[in-house]
Design goal:
The complex is a heterotetramer of chains A (about 500), B (about 120), C (about 775) and D (about 140). By secondary structure, chain A is an all-alpha fold. Chain A has 21 helices and two strands. Chain A has a domain at about 265-460. Chain A has a two-stranded antiparallel sheet. The longest helix of chain A has about 30 residues, at about 150-185. In chain C, strands 1-2 form a two-stranded antiparallel sheet. In chain C, a hairpin with a 4-residue loop joins strand 1 (about 60-65) and strand 2. Chain D has one domain (about 5-135). Helices cover about 70% and strands about 0% of the residues of chain D. In chain D, helix 4 packs antiparallel against helix 5 (about 115-135). Classes of the chains: A mainly alpha (about 500), B mainly alpha (about 120), C mainly alpha (about 775), D mainly alpha (about 140). Chains A and C meet through helix 1, helix 5, helix 6, helix 7 and helix 9 of A and strand 1, helix 5, helix 6, helix 23 and helix 24 of C.
Chain lengths: ~500, ~120, ~775, ~140
């Protein structure tokens, strides 16, 4: 099984090398599609293996942690890997189906697989500095993807994205420097031991620095501004995969470091405050927009608030709920942007004032949109409901009524915003610009992810069980340390 | 970490921060470069007091901590890559708009200004 | 018959999907499918009724998320049986009517699919005992009703009415969810029957109950949430007849009926529920009298009747619950019949406006009879079911000596009788020729005949059940044992009230013009300006404005400002946390080395100089100077590899930079700053100070434990190298290096894509 | 640039460039024991390309490169990843480089084995980046659209 974990990195990176070398588009496509499929299979295999037999540790190069770098595939990582791999594959099929992407940009597949490699490494690494490297891989790939085919407007948007990203990277390095200065290690398991010996005030301060640094990537309040300005400018599949994955990697890093390195034993009021503000400001931002992709971009932010809220309770139930919510969001957010892409692809615009009646002209797009939108709003029986109910119950168990009330209120506003898209773009007399029927491949790719989101909803129980075990692992730092610092191959 | 090193790193951060909070991408690139230098200095200093260069044949002497050096090296390389990309971006921006200034987001401005009008 | 309710629900889902995807030409088959499912349910429910009426309760369970106590525990009791009968019985009528009424519409199958989907959700809702399962079905009815209200989506009015309905009931739904979670946690069970069996008390339970009540009130269009229901009349008439009279709006009453046995003693129950119910009854009746659109008249009548039922449930005694359920049944029958009658009139006369309609009764006497039967039941005229049930309510109120509520209810009932008369008169009477009269062309007689069948049967059901109230009585009795429903109660006070109500109603109808004037005068007054509908509109406008304001301020679009906010937040959070945790900054200590200080000066000086220069090229050279001085520090710190690397990097970067700059203007353009340089300086000094102070504090913590450098030195030879840094990079931490070259490779691709990606949109020839 | 200047630059680069290339290879090889390594070596080779670029322009760089820059980057990635995955193939761990000796067909004195090969990958990628930048920036300028 350790070999499979190694493969998870070799597959996308090998695909990067191959797609750079292969001269024919059809070969590059094949390699990329095979690689993403293999990543998905390997991720699911790791998930089942890990859930049954406990975390898999790979000491890269054969050197034991903390000298070498450890890859740690525990339940949380494996869950994130699996759902991300599914989203990556779905979006890749969509991108190939849309045809313009990899024709106009010969290196599209290389960069896409680089992004995949960065995401995989971020989930797997048990080393703080390697996490930095993983972020850089992922972000550099995203810089390239977002500037691809960029006109003046996109270049401007990209600058905001790139500059904020690089500033965050600099601050991440400061955090690593501080933590190494205080402890002399960058291995996460080792750090969880040594940080306990550090002065509590300083530890708390460093914890908050990391929270905020990852918070920039995760787009929490008040660090999210870059997101709605930049995401909507990219081509549909790129925005979709950004929306589905990138901010969630930030949330993953927050949850991983806060539970392992800076654990709390009671609900954190400041974190819950940030969560509440993120939800509300995000959803209000969505209401103010008039363009599908921009509306959805603000919803990314709003939904991040729910995940942070789950963390803020610092209970097994809360973190399990957050994990379920992330899993659901990865899929649903990707789908929503793909549907937005389908609308744009058909009409050439995503502005609600300029497109209407998609339901009548291309009902299949509406059929894909509806379950995803209802899921986003947290309505049953869709996947969002499972996560939201779990969060609500966890919140009441922790006695944090206010933030739960805020989250429910934000749900109503989310519903409002979804009906705005539905009523504006899908209902009404079809506009004349609805001319291009969506390609079958694009519909299938989106449909596959919609089906996955339905499955996530229906399989709420097994998912919640795994998430609960994962949350249990996260809150008992001892098991992580024991696995990394003693065993391994 | 020696106070001198810490303050130098801080000064580099301050200068870099000042430079990035404006619009011209060339200045921003320089600012980011300074921030990168500051971070690298901090990382290097986190290894403790200076010593001899870390080679195995210098056993016996007090040796600098090699790990932060390796980390800094990786960070320098990564910064090199992103800087190259940023320069291309500035170049591209200039070719498209005859300026490397980062303009405000138009959609955001539209909403802000609609507000201002309705408030007025 | 051994069919489970879950099977039936699956049949609804399957039928809805089949009908939804069926091509337009299969209209007859889709109608048959929908009807078959409903007939099947009706047969099933009649089969179950026998044992349920005798007190048996069938339970089926489908687990979904046991960890969150979410399950579909179906509890088939008297209440469920009553509702399922109504849903499938009325539903059958609706399907039949829709087939005749709108079969020719191009999207008929989609409509029918939604109706079937809704019916399934409603059946699930009526039988589910698990509170979260209940919520699932509750929201399903919200979604399907949203799609039905907005069915004629080309009309902006339909779209906004749909939005209004979904927002109001959606808000209520989330209140309900919160309430149910609280009640379930307070009671320790998610079973509604379990909660009611041992109702929790205390503040949590009270909050939970209040939230659940809000949910019920929004769904059942109770004041002040009643405004969405008349708006929902934008739906096609069969959908209005089904959702907004017979079934969905009763979901709130159903919830109240289920909660009442456990919570009718709770301190908030009776005062809140009764006063909301009475207020709604009065408002609805008042508004109904003023309508000239037949459909709107019925809609406000529905609001009023729902208030009636709510008030009865609010009293909570068995007799009152008994009466409430009886009223609910009779209302479902006569109101659906009346709506369908309006649909038929609309089809034949082309209008629903009382002021324009004339002579329809003479043209279509059978339709007039249907309307008469149903309207009489609504008015409470013997021997119809409406009379029997209203009589039961009056009797219960008199027995309980609730005189003030009785007076209000009686007055509203008189108004009900009045608008019933107005309805029939307005729809069917031949009125003196008015200038506005513009009746459409009469539809072919055959169409009308098919349209009459469904409402006639539903209206006749009111007659049959009124003459033989025992059937209703047995159901109601199984739910809440109490007084029996009888057709002829004898000469008692309740009968007097009933009679007075009807007489008053007739007088009100005769004096309708003066009443209308009185209402007009009142409308001019201050009170009527407080309209719930306007409050809703105002809320939406305010919400949009707040969203625009806040977003306009937060998302201003300026990168420099974003960076200032982000940087401030990032450094403020740890500093505040440090202060709150009681951290004390310590003064820096450590060796002072002169060469280091010298090199530091060489680093800082050009960095500060770079802040002010106006030439791009000079700025770049200053950056290079910083880099070279950094290399000097690296040498001092025993890092020759770093020094060498940095020297090379800086050289290459500056060369490339210089090349790029040769194509840009030599000097920086003069820009208008959005932030003053004082602010920028403050943020910059803050960030720098934070970094320096944090670095000093952190390195003061270093535990003199075993140094990792020693371990690397010991193991490096095994890895085959003397240069420990390089061995770390290519061996111990080779993964980082692999990642680093991936970044480099991607940057290379990015540079190429940025610059030449533009010119060659087609694949490059290799 | 007049003829004399360019001639001077060209002869200069003719002698300087090969020297830098050789030094860069040297740095690559000795990296495991002395300051140097794949990145520094690659960067120095890039500097050589820079000299060529400044004296001879874009086409000169193009003729000097054995491969298209993108292929150079791809090849570098391929080499490093192959070395990285050898560990998986041979049954030990991912990136388990030190334990596999590939000196069957390598000259005896370079016995550092796969570690060096890994660094060759790094070297190629870095050269590829610098080459890309030069090739792209050196394109004839287009007017703003």
């Amino acid at each position: 099984m350790t070999a499979v974990v190694g493969l998870l990195l070799v597959i996308p990176l090998g695909a990067v090398a191959l797609t750079l070398l292969l001269p024919k588009l059809v070969w590059r496509r094949s390699v990329s599609l095979i690689a993403s499929t293999a990543t998905l299979i390997a991720s699911v295999a790791v998930l089942f293996g890990v859930d049954g037999d406990g975390p898999i540790i790979v000491n890269v190069g054969g050197w034991e942690a903390p000298l070498g770098i450890a890859l740690v595939a525990d339940r949380f990582a494996a869950l994130m890997l699996s759902v991300s791999a599914a989203a990556l594959l779905g979006v890749l099929i969509f991108a190939v189906g849309q045809r313009d992407n990899d024709r106009a940009f010969p290196s599209f597949h290389a960069v896409y697989q680089t992004l995949a490699a960065g995401v995989v490494l971020a989930f797997l690494t048990g080393d703080l500095f390697t996490l930095f490297v993983a972020f850089e891989i992922m972000l550099t790939a995203s810089y390239v993807l977002i500037t691809h085919r960029a006109g003046p407007e996109q270049i401007r948007a990209t600058m905001t994205y790139v500059v904020v990203g690089l500033v965050a990277s600099g601050l991440f390095l400061v955090g690593i420097g501080l933590i190494y200065a205080a402890t002399g290690t960058v291995n996460l398991a080792d750090l969880s031991v040594r940080l306990a010996e550090v002065d509590p005030a300083l530890r708390t301060a460093i914890g908050w620095l990391f929270f905020m640094v990852f918070g920039i990537k995760a787009a929490i309040f008040p660090l999210f501004f870059w997101l709605p300005d930049s995401y909507p400018t990219a081509v549909a599949p790129v925005t979709a995969i950004f929306a589905g994955l990138l901010t969630k990697v930030g949330v993953y890093a927050i949850i991983r470091t806060q539970t392992l390195l800076f654990p709390a034993d009671k609900p954190s009021t400041p974190i819950l405050l940030i969560a509440g503000l993120t939800m509300v400001i995000g959803v209000l931002g969505a209401i103010a927009q008039g363009d599908i992709k921009r509306i959805l971009s603000f919803h990314i932010i709003s939904q991040i608030g729910y995940m942070i809220m789950g963390l803020g309770f610092f209970t097994v139930a809360g973190i399990a709920a957050a994990i379920v919510f992330i899993v659901h969001q990865v899929v649903v957010k990707t789908v929503m942007f793909l549907v937005g892409g389908l609308v744009e692809n058909s009409s050439g615009t995503g502005r609600l004032k300029e497109v209407a009646g998609v339901l009548h002209k291309f009902p299949v797009i509406a059929v894909l949109f509806l379950p995803a939108a209802l899921s986003l709003a947290g309505l049953p029986p869709f996947s969002g409901f499972v996560g939201k109910l779990a969060l609500v119950q966890a919140g009441f168990e922790s006695g944090r009524w206010l933030v739960v009330a805020v989250s429910l209120f934000a749900s109503v506003l989310t519903l409002f915003s979804m009906t705005k898209i539905w009523s504006g773009a899908f209902w009404g007399t079809p506009t004349d610009n609805l001319v291009r029927a969506p390609a079958a491949t694009m519909v299938m790719a989106t449909g596959g992810l919609v089906a996955l989101s339905l499955v996530i909803g229906l399989a709420g129980q097994p998912l919640l069980e795994i998430a609960t075990r994962a949350a249990g692992d996260l809150l008992s730092q001892e098991s992580y340390r024991a696995a990394v610092l003693v065993s391994g191959s | 970490m020696s106070p001198v090193l810490a303050i130098t790193a801080g000064a580099l951060f301050a200068a870099g921060t000042y430079l990035i909070m404006q619009r011209l991408l060339t200045r921003i690139v320089i600012g980011l470069g300074l921030i990168g230098h500051g971070a690298n200095l901090l990382l290097l200093g986190s290894g403790g007091p200076p010593g001899a260069a870390p080679f195995t044949d210098q056993a016996g002497q007090a040796m600098s901590d090699p790990l932060p050096q390796a980390l800094v090296l990786t960070a320098i390389v990564i910064t090199f890559g992103t800087t190259a990309f940023l320069m291309a971006l500035a170049y591209r921006s200039h070719a498209l708009t005859l300026s490397d200034a980062v303009e405000d987001d138009q959609e955001d401005r539209r909403i802000s200004e609609a507000n201002r009008r309705s408030a007025a | 018959m051994n069919v489970s309710l879950l099977t039936i629900l699956s049949a609804y889902l399957a039928a809805a999907i089949l009908i939804g995807v069926a091509p337009t030409r299969f209209r007859r088959s889709t109608i048959a499918t929908a009807a078959a499912v409903m007939v099947g349910t009706l047969v099933w429910v009649l089969d179950q009724a026998g044992s349920v009426v005798n007190g048996d309760v069938h339970i089926e369970t489908l687990r979904w998320i046991p960890s969150l106590s979410v399950a579909f525990e179906l509890r088939i009791d008297a209440l469920a049986i009553t509702f399922i009968s109504l849903i499938s019985g009325v539903g059958l009528g609706i399907v039949a009517f829709s087939g005749a009424y709108m079969r020719t519409k191009p999207r008929f199958n989609r409509f029918l699919s939604l109706i079937v989907m809704f019916a399934g959700a409603m059946i699930g809702l009526s039988a589910t005992d698990n509170v979260f399962g209940l919520f699932v079905f509750w929201e399903l009815t919200t979604i399907t009703s949203y799609l039905l209200v907005g069915f004629d989506d080309e009309k902006a009015g339909s779209r906004s009415a749909a939005l209004q309905a979904v927002l109001t009931t959606g808000l209520g739904g989330l209140a309900l969810l919160g309430g149910l979670v609280l009640l379930a946690q307070a009671a320790g069970t998610a079973s509604l029957a379990g909660i009611v069996a041992s109702p929790p008390t205390g503040i949590v339970a009270t909050v939970g109950l209040s939230l659940a009540l809000v949910g019920a009130f929004t769904k059942s269009a109770q004041a002040p949430f009643h405004f969405w229901l008349p708006g929902a009349m934008a739906a096609p008439t069969p959908a209005s007849a089904y959702l907004h009279s017979a079934t969905m709006v009763k979901a709130g009453i159903l919830l109240l009926l289920r909660l009442a046995p456990g919570f009718n003693t709770a301190s908030i129950w009776t005062p809140v529920v009764v006063s909301v119910g009475l207020a709604t009854m009065v408002i609805g009746a008042w508004r109904a009298l003023r309508q000239t659109d037949l459909k709107l008249l019925l809609a406000y009548g529905t609001v009023s009747q729902l208030g009636f039922m709510t008030a009865l449930v609010g009293f909570g005694s068995p007799a009152m619950l008994h009466a409430a359920l009886a009223v609910l049944i009779s209302h479902a029958l006569f109101k659906s019949a009346l709506f369908l009658t309006v649909g038929a009139i609309d089809s034949t006369a082309g209008t629903r406006d009382i002021r324009k309609l004339s002579g329809v009764g003479l043209q279509h006497p059978l339709l007039a009879l249907t309307g008469a039967l149903a309207a009489a039941s609504m008015a409470g005229i013997a021997p119809l079911l409406g009379f029997v049930t209203k009589e039961a309510a009056f009797a219960a109120l008199i027995d309980a000596q609730k005189w003030a509520p009785l007076a209000i209810i009686a007055a509203s009932s008189a108004a009900t009788a009045a608008y019933s008369l107005k309805f029939w008169w307005g729809a069917f009477a031949t009125k003196p020729q008015s200038p506005e009269h513009a009746g459409g062309d009469p539809a072919p007689l055959r169409t009308i005949r098919t349209l009459i069948a469904a409402p006639l049967i539903l209206a006749s059901a009111g007659v049959v059940l009124g003459l033989a109230p025992g059937i209703v009585d047995r159901l109601v009795y199984a739910f809440a044992p109490g007084a029996k429903l009888v057709l002829w109660p004898g000469w008692k006070a309740a009968l007097a009230v009933s009679a007075t109500v009807v007489v008053l109603g007739v007088i009100m109808h005769i004096k309708r013009e003066s009443i209308d004037r009185a209402q007009q005068r009142f409308v001019g007054g201050r009170l009527s300006r407080i309209s719930a509908d306007e409050a809703y509109q105002w809320t939406i406008v305010a919400l949009n404005r707040v969203a625009d304001r806040i977003t306009g301020v937060v998302q201003h679009g300026s990168l420099p400002l974003y960076l200032a906010v982000i940087l401030t937040a990032v450094i403020a959070a740890p500093m505040v946390a440090f202060g709150f945790a009681g951290g004390v900054p310590t003064l820096p200590t450590g060796p002072f080395s002169l060469p280091e200080a010298g090199m530091a000066l060489l680093v800082v000086a050009p960095a500060l100089a770079a802040l002010r220069v106006s030439s791009r090229m000079v700025a770049v050279l200053l950056l290079g100077a910083v880099g070279y001085a950094m290399a000097g520090i690296f040498v001092l710190y025993g890092a020759p590899d770093l020094a060498l690397t940095l020297l090379l990097v800086e050289t290459v970067v500056i060369a490339i930079f210089a090349f790029v700059l040769s194509r840009l203007p030599r000097h920086f353009e003069i820009m208008v700053w959005r932030i003053r340089s004082a602010v920028r300086a403050a943020v910059a000094v803050g960030v720098g100070g934070f970094v320096a102070a944090a670095a000093l504090l952190a390195s003061g913590q270093r535990n003199p434990g075993p140094s990792p450098s020693a371990a690397y030195r010991d193991l490096a030879p095994a890895a085959g190298g003397k240069n420990i840094v390089n061995v770390i990079l290519t061996d111990f931490r080779a993964l980082d290096t692999l990642g680093e070259i991936t970044v480099i490779a991607t940057a290379a691709i990015g540079v190429a894509a940025l610059i030449s990606g533009f010119r060659t949109p087609v694949e490059e020839a290799e | 640039m007049n003829v004399r200047q360019s001639l001077l630059a060209e002869t200069g680069s003719r002698t300087v460039v090969p020297t830098i290339f050789i030094v860069s290879l040297f740095l690559l090889v000795v990296g495991h024991d002395a300051p140097g390594g794949g990145f520094v070596g690659g960067l120095l080779a890039g500097a050589a390309l820079l000299v060529v670029f400044l004296s001879g322009g874009r086409n000169e760089v193009r003729t000097l490169l054995p491969l298209h820059p993108r292929s150079l980057v791809g090849l570098g990635m391929a080499v490093s990843i192959t070395v990285a995955s050898l560990g998986l193939v041979f049954g030990s761990s991912f990136l388990d480089a030190g334990k596999i000796t590939l000196d069957l067909w390598l000259v005896g004195e370079i016995s550092a084995g796969s570690s060096l090969l890994f660094d060759v990958g790094v070297y190629l990628v870095v050269v590829g980046l610098v080459a890309t930048v030069l090739m792209e920036l050196g394109r004839p300028e287009e007017s703003a659209s």
